[in-house]
Amino acid sequence: MKQLFINIKELIQVREKPVEKLSGKEMKELPGIKNAWLLVKDHKIADYGEMNALSEIDADKTIDATGKIILPSWCDSHTHIVYAGNREQEFADRINGLSYEEIANRGGGILNSAKTLAETSEEDIYQQSAKRLEEVIKLGTGAVEIKSGYGLTEEGELKMLRVIKKLQKNYELPIKATFLGAHAIPKEYKKDPDAYMKLVIEEILPKVAEQNLAEYIDIFCEKGYFSVDDTHKLLSAAKKYGLKPKIHVNQFNAIGGIKAGIEHNALSVDHLEVMTQEDIETLKGTSTMPVALPSCSLFLSIPYSPAREMLNAGLPLALATDFNPGSTPSGNMNLVVSLACIKMKMTPEEAINAATINGAYAMELSETHGSITKGKNANFILTKEIPSYTFLPYAFGTNSIEAVYINGKLVE
Ligand SMILES: [Zn+2]
Question: pTM for this one?
Answer without folding.
Answer: 0.97
